[in-house]
């Protein structure tokens, strides 16, 4: 997916829109570079064998449970959010902490604030709230697979299909 992120930023595709911070293009880029992190989190299971993400999005008693899953895409945890303090949340945030240590990942901008907010609800050491982000490897054009001007809609469809395959 990193290769697709590079192609998205290429001037032959959406480079100008990316430079202009077009929201749709930036979100598509964030989704592509965050794919691995979201994949790892999406595959976590609770002690009963249920997928943690499925639990989060179907928990009607705690509407804040899905919010942490938006962190890798560069979205902050909404103020006042109180996700359920569970092993699923702990494991998910551990995966996100690993990604947040890399400045090239969108989660690096909001992870610590979200972790502090979660620790206020779940206890002071529930998740790591002191991740130090360092410059990481960004996708580069030299490592890219040439996709000959793949339309953004194709990229978005591929990403959505991947998510469906994981959580289907």
Provide structural commentary.
There is one protein chain. The protein has helices at 2-9, 15-19, 23-33, 35-42, 52-58, 87-100, 111-122, 152-167. The chain is 48% helix and 0% strand. Helix 1 (2-9) runs antiparallel to helix 3 (23-33) and helix 3 (23-33) packs across helix 8 (152-167). It has 168 residues and is an all-alpha fold.
List the helices and strands and how they pair.
Elements: H1 2-9, H2 15-19, H3 23-33, H4 35-42, H5 52-58, H6 87-100, H7 111-122, H8 152-167
Helix pairs in contact: 1-3, 3-8
Keyword list:
mainly alpha, 0% strand, 8 helices, globular, 168 residues
Shape: globular
Mean pLDDT, nearest integer?
83
The assigned structural class equals mainly alpha
Round the Cα radius of gyration to an integer and report it: 17 Å
Q: Quaternary arrangement of the chains shown? A: single chain
**Distance between the first and last residues' Cα:** 19 Å
> SSE order in H/E notation?
HHHHHHHH
Tell me about the biggest sheet? none
Helicity level, as a percent range? Answer: 40-55%
What's the helix count?
A: 8
Strand content: under 5%
What are the low-pLDDT stretches, counting only 5+ consecutive residues below 50? 139-152
Number of distinct beta strands:
0
């Amino acid at each position: 997916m990193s290769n697709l992120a590079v192609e998205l930023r290429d001037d032959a595709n959406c480079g100008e829109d990316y430079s202009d911070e077009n929201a749709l293009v930036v979100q598509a880029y964030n989704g592509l570079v965050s794919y691995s992190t979201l994949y790892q989190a999406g595959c976590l299971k609770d002690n009963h064998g249920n997928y943690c993400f499925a639990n989060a999005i179907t928990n009607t008693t705690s509407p804040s449970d899905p919010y942490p899953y938006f962190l890798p895409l560069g979205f902050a945890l909404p103020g006042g959010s109180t996700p359920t303090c569970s092993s699923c949340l702990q494991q998910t945030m551990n995966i996100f902490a690993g990604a947040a240590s890399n400045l090239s990942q969108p989660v690096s901008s909001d992870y610590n604030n979200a972790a502090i907010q979660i620790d206020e609800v779940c206890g002071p050491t529930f998740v790591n709230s002191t991740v130090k982000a360092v410059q990481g490897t960004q996708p580069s054009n030299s490592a890219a697979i040439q996709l000959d001007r793949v339309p953004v809609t194709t990229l978005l469809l591929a990403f959505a299909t991947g998510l469906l395959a994981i959580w289907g």
